[in-house]
Write a structure and sequence with these properties.
The complex is a heterodimer of chains A (about 220) and B (about 325).
Chain A (H helix, E strand, L loop, with lengths): L3 E4 L4 E5 L6 H17 L4 E6 L3 E6 L6 H10 L12 E7 L8 H8 L3 H9 L2 E7 L6 E4 L14 E4 L3 E5 L2 E4 L4 E3 L2 E5 L21 E7 L1 H5 L4
Parallel strand pairs in A: 5-13
Antiparallel strand pairs in A: 1-2, 2-4, 3-4, 6-7, 6-13, 7-10, 8-11, 9-10, 9-12
Chain B lengths: L4 E6 L5 E3 L19 H10 L8 E5 L4 E5 L3 E6 L2 E7 L3 E4 L6 E3 L4 E7 L4 E6 L22 H4 L7 E3 L21 E6 L8 H9 L2 E3 L7 E5 L14 E2 L4 E3 L7 E3 L6 E2 L3 E5 L4 H4 L7 E6 L2 H20 L3
Parallel strand pairs in B: 12-20
Antiparallel strand pairs in B: 1-4, 1-11, 2-3, 3-10, 4-9, 5-8, 5-10, 6-7, 6-9, 12-19, 13-14, 13-20, 14-17, 15-18, 16-17, 16-19
Chain lengths: ~220, ~325
């Protein structure tokens, strides 16, 4: 549960659930996030869950830190499903022009490209958080044998749809963006859709993601 | 009948449609956006009689050159702005901020510069036609959300007005933009990651606003702030005004279009009362930080809002 609650500036509350990154702590964060969404306390302008923190922004013309903190601590927590039932299948093409860092990873990790891909595709991933850029999911945990640090010099432009891995995490670049993750493939699907009002981000905190391999021609002819 | 619009003859450096911003979307990675200088945004809308959350054209440094087509409009510009009104393609009138002016079809507004400041606002009576996502038409170029396909304006784009014609209503208000002396901050959640020396430097030294400053963030240059714990933290939520210090030791202040999460230690957070004024600091400006307490920050915000309301009631 919340270990510490303090102010972040004059218009946000910083809830600290711990320093480790694991599913148990993250599920607590997501559960708290869902409870706050349900409670609709007036004055709240944003609720941002991450690995082990929850930040609640508010409109200082309507409420202040002490008053909102009191309201938040009074919430009777309901237990939303510990893990959401959403399983999202994400097609991924690992053709050479998409898997920008695969051969370098293979050299550095001293395992074959096939082994890296097998390890990656044979696992379900949990979405810890969504953000940084619109709809970008932070997923984990990838197997220990394929964990590697970020690029020393981040790319100025990572192509849209790129699937990246670093440390125990993987992600999907929903927009062309600067970035330092090791790119192993690309997905043709829309992971963020601003015209989808009910679910603009396809992958939300608590969701499960399964990647599956597609060929280059399937990628090029992809039709959603 | 043709709808009235501004033809964009020159887009300016960063001209976007903005309103009060987009709430409740940080958890999917969409930043708040909205007008950078809320007070000036609000005054320009109140001058032309618009309701709250109306769309205004925000411009930065060099503004756009606009030509009104198929209509006429009551308009107002706020900020520290030099602009001309060009009538019949020839007569040049010097524009005056903080008072309404009337534009006939084919008249032009040439917004030359936001002198010694960054942002200015153009509002028209009944506002502009915006594209709305989650209750806001504010442009967020990073996520390609908002009006104009989420992009800043380019030459030949059209900016449509909601009303083709309206009667001129003459309104004005006295207002002088004052320069901010200190950026007042509350200590951040990672304040203790920094050495005693770094803490002293942060509150006593001068920092310079760098050229790498935009609607996402303001980068500062100055003495290096030494981190004695860890230069990276697990990524977590951010808010407008957070001062992050990346491994190079130069602080970055999060502005309206910032990424929703970040992984650099937070040394401080700018108070809400100072936001409108510090975003107007141009690259090269020197600035100092001042530490205050939460209760003071709340009081200062109340006072700042009362001042804004007071300015608005003086519109005549």
């Amino acid at each position: 549960m919340i270990k510490n609650i303090i102010n972040l500036g004059d218009s946000a509350i910083y809830c600290d659930f711990g320093s480790e990154v694991n599913r148990e702590i993250n599920s607590q964060v997501i559960n708290y996030f869902k409870n706050l969404q349900e409670n609709k306390i007036s004055g709240i302008t944003n609720i941002t869950p991450s690995y082990n923190k929850l930040i609640i922004s508010f409109d200082l013309t309507q409420i202040n830190y002490e008053k909102l903190k009191e309201k938040i601590l009074k919430i009777k927590l309901e237990n939303f499903d510990k893990e959401s039932k959403n399983i999202i299948k994400v097609p991924a093409c690992v053709a050479e022009e998409f898997s920008l860092d695969l051969s370098r990873l293979s050299e550095n990790l001293k395992i074959s490209i096939d082994k890296i891909l097998n390890s990656f595709f044979n696992k379900k991933y949990f979405c810890y958080m969504t953000g940084f850029i619109a709809g970008m999911p932070f997923l984990g945990d990838i197997n220990k044998d394929i964990r590697f640090k970020r690029l020393e010099t981040p790319r100025i432009k990572v192509p849209k749809g790129s699937i990246g891995i670093t440390e125990q995490f993987c992600n999907i670049y929903t927009f062309e963006s600067p970035g330092g993750w090791n790119i192993i493939g690309n997905t043709p699907i829309k992971v963020f859709d601003k015209f989808n009002n009910s679910r603009p981000a396809k992958i939300n905190p608590g969701d499960t993601v399964e990647f599956y391999k597609i060929s280059k021609s399937e990628y090029l002819n992809w039709n959603e | 009948m043709n709808k009235a619009y501004f033809e964009i003859l020159r887009p300016g450096i960063n001209s976007t449609l903005q309103d009060e911003g987009r709430a409740y979307q940080y958890h999917i990675g969409v930043s708040f956006s909205g007008a950078m200088d809320k007070r000036n945004y609000l005054i320009s809308n109140c001058l032309v009689g618009n309701k709250s959350n109306a769309a205004s054209l925000e411009f930065a440094y060099q503004g756009p050159l606009l030509k009104l087509k198929f209509g006429n409009a009551t308009a107002a510009i706020t900020g520290n702005v030099t602009f001309n009104i060009i009538r019949n393609n020839s007569n040049i009138e010097k524009g005056i901020c903080y008072q309404t002016f009337y534009l006939n079809s084919e008249d032009q507004i040439d917004i030359i510069s936001t002198d010694k400041s960054v942002y200015g606002y153009l509002s028209v009576k009944e506002s502009f036609v915006g594209e709305y996502f989650w209750g806001s038409c504010s442009v967020n170029t990073r996520a390609k959300i908002g009006s104009n396909q989420g992009e800043k304006y380019s030459t030949n784009d059209k900016l449509y007005l909601n009303q083709n014609e309206n009667e001129f209503s003459s309104k004005k208000v006295e207002y002088l933009n004052s320069r901010i002396e200190f950026i007042r901050v509350l200590k951040g959640t990672n304040y203790n990651y920094f050495s005693e020396k770094a803490k002293k430097i942060f509150f006593n030294s001068e920092f310079t606003v760098s050229k790498l400053t935009d609607r996402m963030g303001m980068r500062l240059e100055g003495p290096i702030l030494e981190n004695i714990v860890d230069t990276n933290i697990r990524s977590e939520g951010l808010i407008k005004g957070v001062i992050q210090v990346p491994p190079d030791g130069n602080p970055i202040i999060m502005l309206s279009d910032h990424g929703s999460i970040g992984g650099y230690p937070k040394i401080g957070v700018v108070i809400s009362a100072d936001y409108d004024k510090f975003v107007q600091l141009t690259p090269g400006s020197k600035i100092k930080f001042k530490s205050i307490q939460l209760s003071e920050a709340e009081t200062l915000f109340k006072i700042y809002n009362m001042e804004t309301e007071n300015i608005i009631t003086q519109i005549k």
